[in-house]
Amino acid sequence: MKTKTTNPQAAHTSGDWIISRNTDMHGTRQVVMSGPQAIAYVYGTGEINEANARLIAAAPMMFAALKSMVAAMGAHGRPMTTHEEDTVIVAEAAIAAAKGA
Question: What pTM value is reported for the model?
Answer without folding.
Answer: 0.78
